[in-house]
Amino acid sequence: MRPLIGITGRRLASGNVRSFDPRFAHLHVDLVWSDNARRIHEAGAIPVVLPFESADAGVVDRLDALLVTGGQDVHPDLWGGDPERASDDADPRQDATVHDRERDVYEIALVRAAVSRRIPVLGICRGNQVLNVALGGTLVEDVPTTGVVHAAAEPPPSAGDADHVVTFVPGSLAHQLFGDSARTNSWHHQAVRDPGPGVTATGHTADGSVEAIELAGAAVLGVQWHPEWHLGLDPVFPWLVESARRRHGSDATTTRV
């Protein structure tokens, strides 16, 4: 049986989606980037979209792995950041550029539930940051401007774009997947600062910015780039699916719907 992998997303007012009939502008839609679901499917698993209402133990118990996706900054109140950077007065359903505390809480709850059940987790971009915050870590408010590209001036990278080189710590999971280094895309202005307890930074760019994290003794990996945009199947997806298969095969208590 193909493993089930839950994918997190975002919630927006349908009026922000151009293809929606304006008569439904007062309603909300849950969205995921289709590339994430496609990559999970290509790697051999069944992608399952998780709405905000799914952040409870009963749902997590039915999953074989969790993918936490990209999006807005994590609210600074949740990791001890600068409160002046908060935007609670704005509506994240209407303005997708501001913080979304409801999404933060939902994803943090999912991560903690998954980790406590030893369910494999992959965090991508914002998901990497959510993973670290959920495990007690902190973030960099704004990655300093250096000679290394972190946030391009143009729209998000298309398939195959590669903006910088990430070097991996020998002996780490990331090193097993990528070797000494890999060229990746980059589309972020925040990053992991202090890894949470048990979390190790295992990938860095030349300026020292953290690009990959792992949780000791668990199938938990975060990457700061967008592997779903790379040409071909990035190694993180087969890793997540294989980890999900192992977890599914060893857990006789998992109930399917």
Automatic annotation (TrEMBL):
- A GO molecular-function descriptor: gamma-glutamyl-gamma-aminobutyrate hydrolase activity
One GO BP annotation is:
polyamine catabolic process
- Tell me which GO cellular component terms the UniProt record holds: cytosol
Q: Where is the composition biased (Basic and acidic residues)?
A: 82-99
Region (Disordered), start-end ranges: 74-99
Q: What stretches pass through the bilayer? A: none
Record's keyword terms, sorted: Hydrolase
Q: What SUPFAM superfamilies does the record tag this protein with?
A: Class I glutamine amidotransferase-like (SSF52317)
What Gene3D superfamilies does this protein's entry cite? 3.40.50.880
Give the source's domain of life in one word.
Answer: Bacteria
What is the name attached to this protein's record?
Gamma-glutamyl-gamma-aminobutyrate hydrolase family protein
| UniProt organism field | Streptomyces rhizosphaericus
